[in-house]
């Protein structure tokens, strides 16, 4: 058996963490032979609730769980971790847009960036889940200048999973038969779910999803808006934001980053290098492939006029969010 790796989950007493912690501790993220030592960070008033989560983890009797450190001290939580799931932040309530969360949440990511800069390994892989995830990831990276920018990512895997599932249902195939659907831009209602390069296996044949569906109007309207508004639809139904699916997506994102995505594209919010005419230095979701612990943006895709408009709109929102966040962080 390998030596245990240390992994931190923030917002550890919250709803997403309640599903995510089990997935990490059971081997779904780092593999069935990799023991993990979990660092669980939440705020001081939540330590009682967190104690209950720690009891439940013990009661799961998981062979891969090497130990647990519950704490409200960021510098303890981030010390020596190889992976950081930054979930802890206020969730959106019914009627709120994600940008309403910015002022409330961005300061958390400034402080956590500063703590990571001091105590984390320089190769730590950071996934920001707490909203507004893209801009929080950018702020976290900005306040942790000693850690490479490539190590900070934001979660759009939930949007990818939603998009894949919508397309599979429309075509009538199992979800794993659809691949290479792309989420571009912000994890918000301006995101661009793009099926133009997606491929589906029907029987023994691979074909473009656009050919299998053969309904351009659906792909440009209902498909896109369903994915863009799915988070709000779940909030309206549950009166709480998505948690089970968010935890699954966080596991998928980190597993693929550590263990490789194979020949499938995955969508990740990464610090933009200006690829596809997007604004530089915002955390923009691109199609990437991952191998040996590194991600690489898929290059050379054709961008239609329609796609150009969609990319520009979500890029503009991210540039505005960045400015708002930098203003908040000045105080
Ligand atoms: P929750 O309210 O159930 O849990 C959040 C937890 O974070 C709470 O226990 C809270 O005490 C803790 N917390 C607050 N400030 C903290 C800090 N400074 N340090 C550590 N912990 C802190 O919320 P949830 O449903 O688990 O959602 C968490 C976040 O994830 C929200 O911002 C939500 O909008 C976001 N989210 C993102 C996606 C995505 O796809 N990117 C999907 C779903 C939810
Ligand atoms: C989601 O997409 O489900 C989450 O980001 C929650 C939200 O506020 O939409």
Give the low-confidence spans: none
CATH class of the largest domain: Alpha Beta
Q: How many domains?
A: 2
| Helix-strand makeup class | alpha/beta
Mean pLDDT equals: 97
Helix content class = 40-55%
Quote the distance from N terminus to C terminus. 48 Å
Number of strands: 14
Strand content: 15-25%
Characteristics:
331 residues, Rossmann fold, L-2-Hydroxyisocaproate Dehydrogenase, Chain A, domain 2, six-stranded parallel beta sheet, three-stranded antiparallel beta sheet, 14 strands, binds nicotinamide-adenine-dinucleotide
Can you tell me about this structure?
- This protein has helices at residues 15-25, 47-60, 74-77, 102-119, 133-142, 157-171, 209-213, 216-220, 222-228, 230-238, 244-259, 305-330, and strands spanning 5-10, 36-41, 65-71, 83-86, 125-128, 152-154, 178-179, 182-184, 192-194, 199-202, 205-208, 266-271, 283-291, 294-297.
- It is α/β, with parallel strands linked by helices and 331 residues long.
- The strands form four sheets. It has a six-stranded parallel beta sheet with strand order 3-2-1-4-5-6. The protein has a three-stranded antiparallel beta sheet with strand order 7-10-11.
- Helix 4 links the parallel strand 4 (83-86) and strand 5 (125-128).
- The longest helix is centred in the C-terminal third of the chain and has 26 residues, at 305-330.
- It is globular, with a radius of gyration of 19 Å.
- The model has no long low-confidence stretch (mean pLDDT 97).
- It binds nicotinamide-adenine-dinucleotide and (2S)-2-hydroxybutanedioic acid.
- Nicotinamide-adenine-dinucleotide (NAD) binds next to helix 1.
